[in-house]
Design a protein that fits this description.
heterodimer, A: about 290 residues, mainly alpha, two-stranded antiparallel ribbon, about 75% helix, about 0% strand, globular, B: about 325 residues, ABC transporter involved in vitamin B12 uptake, BtuC, two-stranded antiparallel sheet
Chain lengths: ~290, ~325
């Protein structure tokens, strides 16, 4: 007999996983919304960020949540530089080239990590890593609750940047009408790089939120990014609320599918949703245009 | 026929290699490089000539490999027949994915994503389904006889993969000279304009994808027969999707020899790096990734394109070094107003 409480627990767990998915997807959708390409290096950057968060704790004893404050700007700078000095110049303004350059970077970064740190899986032991919140009918792991809350803070901060700052305004202008923005004196290469930087900073924060309950490994990011692709497509490429809602939805679907059908088939479920959305409604649930 | 002379010369030169080199290490390296070149030649049909960048050619490679292995193991089908069936199965998967993706009008990033997703779905399914040996994989029984498509000598395998590659190069050359190829290139350059001129872009892309899948699947079938083992991570893994795309891009997408040049250069660099630093995981792929970025940045038409440019450049310099021809009579200027 299935107790509804177990189901509720599965849904809650799904929501918390989904929040981190949403954060990874947020970075991806931001980049897509402005540059109109899928950043295939997103997963490799997430793996790199997981390693950074791991070493920050292991070498410097820096708490992952504090490390986020340092890693987010560092990865912003990394993302900015990647777009400004590598992806932008190398792709000669061609979308297909840009796609390939991000793929090349993904292969490069992932294997540089493999070369440097080998395939070993590394985890950290936080003093509060196993603490949990007692809700009466179920327990929730504290790090995951923190992650859930933090994602909404980051989304809020991102919204503030986009809505209230001049940079945000420039980004929105370029997303809407690149040529017009350029004519109005906006430096498009700079805006592209800023956007890429913001997307990469999202990944760094996601890594810091993940590392207490997850692990660092050269291909650790890939699992998240394939899910993030699904979310971005489901929520509509370029749509920020779409990424948030899509992320939570996919988290719950995965949790429930895993609960009913087992772990690996839960993943197939996600991909089937992905393919179905791509084929039937490629602009997603919230996207304005494909 | 003149257009096929370069292919004949290159294949003949490669066919002579086993006469000179007997080392199994070298032959093994060449067999793998040519297998990747074959997979790349498949990608090149749709990606190079058609401009549709698939990130999931593993779907075809794996299907070919699994079909070959499953037909032999579970149904006792002859290995050569299994090989042909594997190619057909790969082509069918290509046709299905192509029909769905192109019918939905997916292009660029979306097309890359959907092909990637199909390959991943197949990988996960192959890692749980009993017929594909689930997590363990499939082992083809050792039976070193010609009718089982198994040979003691690597030289024979080398000649077989060379023959398959020769067929792929001929297909590419025929494509370049055919009406279908012209349509395909028109779709790559500007799909809307091509449609306006009466090209059925959907049918052209679908045909190219089916052919592309068949060629990549042939590489998968060969993998199964050569290594006599296949599992989900090999058959449907991202590595083959990446290498199938990498070799033509580096060699020169949309050129006949691009995949072969790319595969030989990329594999030589990878193996060379391994020789120098010892077998450290990740180093060869690191080089591949860097190569991809560098080639797109500095030689967007690949090594074959860069070579052509260099020849033109040298020819111009030679021309410039000659004494100048007498100037032509100046054209009379017309004035307006």
């Amino acid at each position: 007999m299935l107790s509804p409480l177990i189901l509720i627990t599965a849904v809650l767990n799904g929501l918390m996983t989904g929040a981190v998915y949403a954060l990874v997807a947020l970075g991806l959708t931001l980049i897509y919304g402005v540059l109109h390409i899928i950043n295939f290096a997103h997963g490799a950057l997430l793996s790199a960020a997981l390693f950074a968060a791991f070493f920050a704790y292991q070498q410097l004893g820096l708490d992952p949540y504090l490390a986020a404050l340092a890693l987010a700007p560092a990865f912003f700078a990394l993302g900015y530089a990647l777009q400004r000095f590598i992806i932008g110049p190398a792709s000669h303004g061609d979308d297909r080239n840009m796609l390939l350059v991000t793929l090349g970077l993904a292969v490069l970064i992932e294997n540089a990590l493999l070369y440097a740190f080998r395939a070993n899986t590394r985890t950290i032991d936080l003093p509060y890593g196993f603490r949990s919140l007692d809700l009466g009918f179920t327990f929730l792991a504290v790090p995951r609750v923190i992650a859930f809350a933090a994602v909404f803070l980051v989304a809020l901060a991102l919204w503030a940047i986009m809505a209230l700052t001049d940079t945000g305004k420039a980004i929105r202008a370029v997303a809407k009408e690149k040529l017009g923005a350029e004519l109005a004196g906006i430096d498009v290469a700079h805006v592209y790089a800023m956007t890429f930087g913001l997307g990469t900073a999202c990944v760094a924060i996601a890594a810091c939120l993940l590392i207490p309950t997850y692990y660092a490994n050269p291909s650790a990011g890939n699992a998240f990014v394939l899910v993030a692709f699904t979310i971005v497509v489901l929520g509509g490429m370029g749509s920020v609320p779409g990424a948030l809602i899509g992320g939570l939805l996919i988290g719950v679907v995965e949790s429930l599918a895993g609960f009913f059908f087992g772990e690996s088939l839960g993943q197939v479920g996600i991909f089937l949703i992905f393919i179905a959305v791509l084929l039937v409604r490629p602009r997603g649930l919230f996207g304005a245009s494909a | 026929m003149k257009a096929f002379v370069p292919i004949a010369v290159v294949i003949a030169a490669l066919a002579a290699v086993p006469l000179v080199v007997q080392s199994n290490v070298v032959l093994n390296f060449l067999v793998v490089a040519l297998m990747i070149a074959l997979a790349g030649a498949g990608w090149n049909i749709l990606g190079g000539y058609g401009g549709q960048y698939s990130f999931g050619n593993a779907a075809f490679f794996g299907t070919g490999a699994y079909a070959t292995a499953i037909l032999q193991l579970h149904y006792g089908v002859n290995a050569w027949l299994g090989f042909c069936a594997g190619i057909a199965a790969g082509a069918a998967v290509g046709a299905i994915i192509g029909a769905l993706a192109f019918r939905a009008g997916l292009r660029s990033s979306y097309f890359a994503l959907v092909t990637l997703a199909f390959a991943e779905v197949l990988r996960i399914l192959a890692s749980v389904a009993p017929i594909t040996g689930a997590g363990v994989g499939l082992l083809i029984k050792l039976d070193l006889r010609a009718q089982s498509f198994q040979f003691q000598s690597r030289a024979i395998f080398y000649l077989i993969i060379l023959a398959l590659l020769a067929a792929a190069l001929v297909i590419a050359q025929l494509l370049e000279r055919s009406r279908f190829g012209a349509w395909l290139i028109a779709v790559r350059e500007n799909e809307d304009a091509a449609e306006a001129l009466g090209v059925d872009a959907f049918a052209v892309k679908l045909g190219a994808m089916t052919l592309s899948a068949a060629v990549t699947a042939a590489a998968g079938c060969f993998y199964a027969q050569y290594f006599l083992f296949i599992d989900a991570g090999i058959g449907y893994g991202t590595w083959i999707s990446v290498e199938a795309l990498l070799t033509p891009i580096i060699g020169g997408a949309g050129t006949v020899f691009g995949p072969l040049v790319g595969a030989l250069v990329v594999k030589s660099l990878g193996e060379g790096a391994k020789l120098i630093t010892g077998d450290v995981p990740g180093l060869d792929l690191m080089i591949y990734g860097a190569m991809l970025v560098l080639v797109i940045g500095f030689a967007p038409r690949g090594l074959v394109g860069a070579f052509t440019d260099a020849r033109v450049f040298v020819a111009r310099r030679v021309m410039a070094a000659r004494p100048p021809r007498p100037p032509r009579a100046p054209v009379e200027e017309t004035t307006h107003g």
